[in-house]
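Data card: per-record layout.
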Amino acid sequence: TNTTVNLFDFLTNVNDFTGSWILPQNLVLDISNPMAVNFTSVSPGIYQLEYVVMSNGVCPNDTAIAIIEVFDELDVELVNSECSDDFTSYTVTLNTGGAALNINYGTVTDLGNGLVEISEIPIGEQLIVNAIDPNTFCFAILVISPPNCNCPNVEPPISNGDQSICEGDDPVTLSVTVGPEQTANWYDSPSGGTLLAEETLNYEVTESTPGIYTYYVQTESLNPPDCFSAVLTPISVEIIALPSGNNAILEYCDNNTDGLIIFELAEAEEQISANTSYTYQYFESMADAEACSNPLNSTYTNMTPGGETVFVKILNSVGCARIVELQLVVLDIPQFSTSVNNESCLNGSDGTIEISNVSGEGSVLFSLDGINYEEVLSFDSLDAGSYTVYSVDDNQCDNTVDVEIIAGQELTLDTFVL
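The structure for this 418-residue chain is written out next.
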């Protein structure tokens, strides 16, 4: 059935809903909203899903396992529907596959081999059959309209398949197959619904909001006219929401001072989305991203000195995509000049380093050990020797300059005459 499942119902004691679901390789499923997942198109089988809450390095990641078994859909088929001799009631024969039944009218007789006869149904009433498989607990609801006693039995349409599209895609057309000299009518409910389209085998879906939409199709006979199938065939379309994502920025410091940087584009993925089930592709232009042509390697050197914008295509597990922008920024490193006052005398420890012509983002701090930084423009009381002046600005970009303080002179008197 086209119902949704909350994956968290398969776990216990969940206190953090910010984690990520990881699918096994043999399962293609839209888990953008894990609280409403549609398993309709999933093949029967047992699937192991993982739910991971990241620890951010403090403790080990917390992982839970959800074992989900998908069963075949319960199929209850109308085999025959016929009027009583006096036209006051009708009888239907169903193939239930052994399902337990709950009905609103009639008397049930088990014919064996999965066949059931329901008789004495008032001719003016619809029969509503609620069936449940006693082993899998899958259920089905069948609504059967009373037959036109002047008509032959008309088979319901055969669905040409449910459809799924991504949000924003072109409208999809659903279709059914009927017999010769027959057509079809489309409704929004299996019983007493609004007629959406008549005498057509195709229906163009007009909904655009993500969700599951089910339509119900009835066969209409053209010869003889005004004869209809007692059962309407359901056919559905799922409109899948696009993956969510944000524009992002990667900022690298221009340590080579040429405006070009080797960017690791994948580092932006945490900014773009916290959903770890998404995959990402990178492109130089929006046109390339839309056409999915000329993808970039995730290790990328900007073509324009100083930075540029690339485009990121985010794909969910079923291939629906959203495109966001990734701004690549090459940050200038701090620049400065130095001047040195050497020692005046040997071991005088009075050397100084003066700093000038400072440029950088925000406050530029300086250090002689690369550990302890200060907002200063000079260092004094220095011994003779080699020094490295370290700098860092508000962008955490850094630069260094090597300087040397020359030892002071030593004055020696060989002779002193008075």
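Known properties of this structure: Helices lie at 269-272, 286-291. The mean pLDDT is 92.

See the next section for split statistics.
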